[in-house]
Amino acid sequence: MPTTAADTLDALLAQRAQIHPRHPALRWDGGDPQWQSLDYATLAQRARALAQALPVERGLRVAWLGFNHPAQIALLFALARRGALLVPLNHRLAPAEWAAVLNDSAPVLLVHDEAFAEPARALAAAHGLAAMPVEALDGGDEPPTEPPDGHAAHEGGPDDPVLLVYTSGTTGQPKGAVHTQANLLANMAIAAQVQEITERDTVLTALPLFHVGGLCIQTLPALSRGATVLLHRRFDPGAVFDALAASHPTLTLQVPATLQALVQHPRWARADLSCLRALWAGSSLLPADLLRACHARGLPVCNVYGSTETGPFSIALGPAEAMDHVGSCGWPAPGVEIRLVGTDGEPVASGRVGEICVRGPNVVGLYWPDIAALDAEGFFHSGDLARQDPDGSYVVVGRAKDMIISGGENIYPAEIEQLLAEHPWVAECAVVGRPDERWGEACVAVVVLRETAPEDWQSGVSAALEGRLARYKWPRHWHRVDALPRTALGKVVKPAIRAWLVSQR
Predict the structure, then answer these.
(1) How high is the pLDDT of residue 489?
(2) Which residues contact 7 (CB under 8 A, 6 or more apart)?
């Protein structure tokens, strides 16, 4: 049994295959039989066969466009072996947005599944690169034969880039965060330690692997510890309940939108959740009503704070504290340093709000191709604002760019949004600032109401803030809308809301 930590993804997978070769690594709900169930030995063989067969050299990029697929994970390990990079495309984006990522990353190959065959072929033709259907990837289970000269054997090292993930681009053009093998391995170790993942766990992955949340919070950490991953092509609440009943996963990761779909599903009330020892959420802000619904079922909702650039496992709220720290992101993950700084770049006083800065072995150093992502001291500036409570835990209060300055007072929208979201008439909401001659900025609440809301909803909703929020923080204007604008990852696009408000004046 190996006694030293692996320093590359290829070495890690080889260790897992040696320790328990026939233990299930990936089980998939897709239709291709050759990928539906892979043990660790088979996953390692597939990855090495791909590394030998793919027409890529060290430093080159391969893009992926499709739903979740075990081949995407095998491809990541194969490219790591070659010293090449995987560029997962967000399948929810528009063709022009895909084109922008391809223009920036310049891959040599675009691998796609059947659902995205047509746009993938069009993208490949427009960008002069080869398109390969996932069915063409070598799925053979025979061990690959290494060439005599050692070509394709351990070309990728710890410091080699292996994963290029583009930010969601809510404030401009997306940027590609360059994750090295060392970054990913550090994040796996941190995430697995905090979540106490072992080979006895079964992890349900329903979130998209094109995002670091779906890939790096549980999926890769689970594989690093020899656990079994139940991989769903895409999120479907009915399929999640089916998996709970049939496969009894011990852990899963959700985001507010998918958690809401589960809680509101007809099967929620009678579903047996006892197999789950925790439900983790990849979101800095979680609606209180969803937390109450889960906690009422005895299911602790743990939280992970992070970003595309930070692994993303940066701050975590574990199951022991989940029920008595509602609204908190928890404490810094092992080996991760957190610093809160003011607008002058200096650390803020205890209890004051500051920008979250993160330093750790899982934090990327560059944006593609060679743009520095860190300050001179190695900290990543997140743009998120938080305060640290006396017990050392952190509470995120919003984005720095979203902070409202009204009458000389700083107002953090997240604080207001969390209270409004608790009201039974409010389905979702966003609070933004609008230029105001008297106050500098005025606080504006834009809300999506439930069907139960009466015509005179505004007074009832605002009254719920009485005694819970200082008067100067109350919204001065209210707008009802049918839906909030969101990115492909589900983030509310506040610049679009502010632009809409200007158009209404």
Answers:
(1) 64
(2) 157, 158, 181, 182, 185
Distances (CA, A) of 301 to 10, 279, 316, 380: 33, 5, 11, 27
The predicted model gives 157-173 an average pLDDT of 82
**The pLDDT value given to residue 29:** 95
Please check whether residue 144 lies inside any domain of the structure.
yes
pLDDT in tens, 49-66: 999 999 899 999 999 999
Domain final residue, candidates 164, 180, 196: 180
DSSP 194-263: HHT--TT-EEEE-S-TTSHIIIIIIIHHHHHTT-EEEE-SS--HHHHHHHHHHT--SEEEE-HHHHHHHH
Is the confidence at residue 496, as pLDDT, over 80? yes
Is the peptide bond prior to 300 cis by the omega test (within 30 degrees of 0)?
Answer: no
- β-strand pairing of 301-305 with 315-317: antiparallel
Query: What is the distance between the alpha carbons of residues 284 and 410, in angstroms, rounded to a whole number?
Result: 20
CA distances from 332 to 191, 192, 211, 321 (A): 11, 14, 21, 14
Amino acid 470: pLDDT: 83
Q: How far apart are CA 65 and CA 78, in angstroms?
A: 17
* Least confident range of 121-125, 209-213, 304-308, 483-487: 483-487
pLDDT score at 344: 92
Out of 150, 180, 210, a domain closes at 180
Q: Give residue 145's pLDDT.
A: 58
* Token code pair at residue 105: 């990353």
In a domain, residue 294? The reply is no
Cα separations in angstroms, 339 against 89, 130, 222: 32, 45, 29
User: What CATH number does residue 432 fall under?
Assistant: 3.30.300.30
Pairing of strands 301-305, 278-281: parallel
The backbone torsions φ and ψ at residue 209, rounded to the nearest 5 degrees and listed phi first, read: -75, -10
13 or 413: which leads in pLDDT: 13
pLDDT at 26 over 70: yes
- pTM score, whole prediction: 0.87
What does the alpha-carbon distance between residue 252 and residue 302 come to, in Å, rounded to a whole number?
Answer: 10
Instruction: Establish if 370 belongs to a structural domain.
Output: no
Torsion angle of alpha carbons 394, 397, 398, 401, nearest 10°?
Answer: -100
Q: Where do the H-state alpha helices sit in 352-412?
A: none
Domain for residue 90, yes or no?
yes
Half-sphere exposure (Cβ direction) of 308: Cα atoms closer than 13 Å: 21
Going by pLDDT thresholds of 50, 70 and 90, the confidence category of residue 170 is very low
CATH number for the domain spanning 146: value is 3.40.50.12780
Q: Containing domain of residue 491, as a range?
A: 403-504
For the chain, how many structural domains are there in total?
A: 2
